[in-house]
TrEMBL record, chains A, B:
PANTHER family (alphabetical): FERRIC UPTAKE REGULATION PROTEIN, ZINC UPTAKE REGULATION PROTEIN
CDD domains named among the record's database cross-references: Fur_like (cd07153)
The entry's keywords: DNA-binding, Metal-binding, Repressor, Transcription, Transcription regulation, Zinc
Cofactor(s), by name: Zn(2+)
Residues the entry annotates as binding Zn(2+): 97, 100, 137, 140
InterPro entries according to UniProt: FUR, Fur_C, WH-like_DNA-bd_sf, WH_DNA-bd_sf
GO molecular function list: DNA-binding transcription factor activity; transcription cis-regulatory region binding; zinc ion binding
Keyword DNA-binding among record annotations: yes
Cofactor mode of binding and number, as noted: Binds 1 zinc ion per subunit.
Protein name: Fur family transcriptional regulator, ferric uptake regulator
Source superkingdom: Bacteria
Family, similarity comment: Belongs to the Fur family.
GO BP annotation list: negative regulation of DNA-templated transcription; regulation of secondary metabolite biosynthetic process
Length: 147, 147
DNA sequence: GATGATTATGCAATATAGTTGCATCAATGA
DNA sequence: TCATTGATGCAACTATATTGCATAATCATC
């Protein structure tokens, strides 16, 4: 668990009941250094407490809607989930390995984006800008060079 | 069809046989002003020529591997496909409406990205940087205000 | 042009990820 | 206690994509 995050508090401030299941989901995601899929969250919680797969999906949706979590597109088929940016967690890009599928959080200052033009000219409402870096991860590069 | 693109040529240069089906897929995507899903490509081609759904998926994969097309994450479940950046098509971000799911190409200069830090510090190989802008599109904003 | 090898396509079955409907359980308040 | 509401479970279902294998088309060699 991140030193700055009281998950119970996060949920209450977002206006959702801090049920045991919701706290579990949030703690599993908050305690991991990379975003997780619904299946991974389900499996992790399931090792200690019984929970239904559908409940996990519903909680993930709920927490994304309330901006406690963010849904991260991963290049692959399954969405990944991480803590939404807040006072203590700066928004940051994610890397996705096109060989092994690994998803990794990148440093917030590894990229800088200037979106002034977008905000001036785009006719819709912009809620979020997601950056996905695609390539080959370190591990896969190593393995590849061993051939 | 884009004035600058000879699809037959694009395929040959990429080293893939320019079969009728491949040309169809490429022409449908190249002729549209926003990226399309596999299902949309299939339906569009299917109005005039018989083609199998699986063939469409295989061609999309092949052309993405050969960098003729790019796969665009859409926030939703289905991947979208557009022409890969080349001499005549600058890379550009995409907008995805979280209400209606519409995917729209944004102007290449609506965002500028500085990735120097990433290239200096990231241990893997970076092939592509995808930017996905999420929000509410103009149409959905209008509809919403009509209530 | 016939022959065999290779590549592209079709079709059915299957897999994966996410969603829906409805029943039940738990918490809250009158 | 009872009624109301929100949270969860479970089974069925949907949407999207992939696999295995058969057939058709294309290509290379003679
Ligand atoms: Mn992250
Ligand atoms: Mn585009
Ligand atoms: Zn990898
Ligand atoms: Zn919309």
């Amino acid at each position: 668990m991140c030193a700055h995050c009281n998950y119970q508090n996060l949920l209450e401030k977002a206006g959702v009941e801090p049920t045991a299941n919701r706290l579990q989901v949030l703690a599993v995601i908050g305690g991991n250094d990379a975003p997780l899929t619904a299946a991974e969250v389900f499996a992790t919680i399931g090792r200690f407490h019984p929970i239904n797969r559908v409940t996990v999906y519903r909680i993930l949706d709920l927490l994304v809607r309330h901006r406690v979590l963010e849904r991260i597109s991963s290049g692959g088929r399954a969405a990944h989930f991480g803590l939404a940016p807040n006072k203590y967690h700066a928004p940051h890009p994610h890397f996705c390995c096109s060989r092994c599928g690994a998803v990794i959080c990148l440093n917030p200052d590894s990229l800088s984006i200037d979106a002034d033009n977008l905000h001036k000219t785009f006719a819709g409402e912009v809620d979020r800008i997601e950056v996905l870096v695609e390539g080959i991860c370190r591990n896969c590069l190593k393995q590849r060079s061993n051939h």
